[in-house]
Amino acid sequence: MSDVKISIRDKGPYLVSGTVELVDAEGNRFETKEQFALCRCGHSHNKPFCDGAHHGQFDDCVRAVKVL
């Protein structure tokens, strides 16, 4: 199995890198590439993928909590 990385973009999508299987609630598989972006704002017309429709309409900059 290859390494998979999911990065959260400021004011944007989740970027997924690596070989992953993406399935819907019924188990149907989406066709994906080695890198793709998942919508997290709800504005995309191509859900679950990001189409850039969030631009200027979504403001979120998630940060991980640092564990001491």
From TrEMBL:
Keywords assigned by UniProt, alphabetized: 2Fe-2S, Iron, Iron-sulfur, Metal-binding
Keyword Iron attached: yes
Gene Ontology, cellular component aspect: cytoplasm
UniProt KW Glycoprotein keyword: no
GO molecular function, one term: metal ion binding
InterPro entries on file: FeS-contain_CDGSH-typ, MitoNEET_CISD
Domain Iron-binding zinc finger CDGSH type intervals: 18-60
Protein name in UniProt: Iron-binding zinc finger CDGSH type domain-containing protein
